[in-house]
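Appendix B, record 7
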Amino acid sequence: METTEKTAFEAISVEPFYTGGKTSLADDGCTLATSFGEDVVVTNINTGEEICRIEGDSEILTTLEISPDGQYVVTCSRSLTMRTYRIPSGELVRSARAHDAPVIVMAIDSSSSLVATGGAEGTVKVWDLERGFVTHNLKGHGGVVSALKFYGEQGGSVWRLASGADDCKIRVWDLVSRKCLNVLDSHNSVIRGLSWNADGSILVSGGRDKIVNVWDAHKFKLVRTIPVGESIETAGILSGEGLRIYTGGENGVVKIWNGETSALIAAQAQAAVHNKENERVGVVDILYKTDVLVSVLSDQTFVELDEDLQEVRRIVGFHDQIIDMTYVGEDETKLAVVTNAPDIRIQTVGGIETNVLTGHRDNVISVDRSFDGTWLASSGKDHEARIWHVPTLTCFAVCTGHAGSVGGVALPRLPLEGRPPQFLITGSQDLTIKKWNIAKDGTAKAEYTRKAHEKDINALDVSPNDRLFATASQDRTAKVWDMASGETVGVLRGHKRGVWSIKFNPYEKQIVTGSGDKTVKVWSLNDFSCLRTFEGHTNSVLRTVWTSLGSQIVSSGGDGLIKVWTYASGECAVTLDNHEDKVWSLAVRGSDDGAQMVSGDGEGTITVWKDISDEEKAAKKAAAELQVEQEQQLANYVRSKDWENAILLALTLNQPYKLFCLFRDVLADRQDEDSIMGLAKVDAVLAGLTVEQLELLLKRVRDWNTNARSSVVAQRVMNCILVNHSVDKLSQIPKISTMTDALIPYSERHFNRVDEMYDESYLLDYALNEMDFLDAPQTV
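Structure tokens (predicted):
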């Protein structure tokens, strides 16, 4: 089978867009604004497309809000500055100092005309969104303002604002009379959620005191208190008939309550999702628009729910550090992504939608897939390994027996033909390897256990025929083992630091390793000797995989680079750079021999690499053919003295020497005495140049002007340009000031040289004149 060596790739980045903090959803239900440290990212959550990424003011954001019409994003940061941006351009409209303390919460009314901000000093301000001035300055809270909610409609006469704070009080403000209508006092902890019903007669409040209060907004009386059994971070009223209240909090589930009877109507199915500290993930906010209910979780994921609180989809905002990754699914359209968390994310390749595999009790370290991609094995710090059935997202088997973290796991490489995997290999920090026999019912039993290395085992791999397996360790060695007996077949020695990765060549009797000594080594499985060593990474090599039918190796390192090595030549075919952190994970799609591969780094960025080697070679071939044709055309123009077309073509081809020769020959021929360049047509060509062509020509003139031999041509061309083009047009040339700074000193030097030559030319006249004086007859 023939294969094309891979020499060019197109990168598609799936970048994180939410690292925690405030989120906001426009009324269209798809335009989402999220905090990303000090920046704001606006995303279409239906398509996953990034609309714009807005750079902040170098201080962490404290809150943000997108206008309901999706036209503006307003942000506040620790710098005490409030900034308004236009969407989708990301243009900064205005910036102003908002409060004397950080703004904690913000709200925009339904007409997208008013913005309310609540500060840590207890003040609430209302701003005109379009013009940016303060319309109301509301004081009265005795603590940090923690919740805000407008009530009012465009053209209506009633405009109210409810505000809650950590003084446990709710204040209802009449924005028309600028007065506080009432203070509602029934909570005994921070108020986190406020919501009005459609006609403004009911106000709902929820807090960290584990209750939701229903208030009569006309009489300002407490109607009902609903105990919800968890600390509330958000609460609101659903549209439609009846009073239905949604809540979300520390338990990580969304619930809907009957506000008239206090009964629980529905609850989201309990999802035992944990963060990297192995704590249960909580709900930090609920984004509700008509027909759209999105739960925002503390692990930076978004869960879209239907009206029955069934999960529609789950979206990843931030992966944190990506530890390992592999293609799964029969069509290899999904990725199993391991982050520093106990749960495994099954994510669409190049997308943001995900599912979760839950079962490990501590962080997962490694994953491996079966030949057909329907089975996934995982290992973690909980001393366990698990086998998952990917189509159903269920755990099939659990392997328990190691005394330390399980750092490597490997499934069979031969096709399973519809049956579950029959064995699993694991390697642990307890320095042992185990082969597990997996029964049809998912029962796992260790067939053998072997002391394998002197230090932690980092990686495992199984040979293509399932007869061998290999281990890589921090003790600087790799070993090859017999699958049936569990005995050592060979030891691979040569690395100077720990070995991070090991992979069998699927087509040859070879094995590749990557090490902390910054090298990639290929070994023979016949005599276990080192066949080749590839050097080029500037940091540890963390992952290695084979591609191009085993003729090339892809490696990723702590230097953030991915390199593709050609085994036959021993050279690096291409270096790929799209990461800013260590590239811990690397996977090649097997169904098309690596026409696509993915990489993940320590900052949570996933890059999908598409092989475009054939397209690149075709483009280079076409460009070379075009170059030959154009050079022949140029020669024809010169031969026929068609200077006008010759100069334009030489400028297009970016051939400085040929262009110089053309100008030199025209000046030498000098057919038009009144022409600057010696030919009126050439003057006309230079007068008609575009800004881009002028930039290219001036760069050539700058270079010619540095040499006395070519300075005459340079000065003539520069003179023609200055005579025929206005200052306004020349100022449009990028970095024109830099080019001018380079032209002026050499021009002055050439002028001084010519001036000196001119002065020296009179020495001969003077000498001859003196000689005539000496020869004159003397008179007495």
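Remarks on this record: The CA atoms of residues 556 and 690 lie 44 Å apart. The helical segments are 613-639, 643-653, 656-669, 680-687, 691-704, 708-724, 727-730, 736-775.
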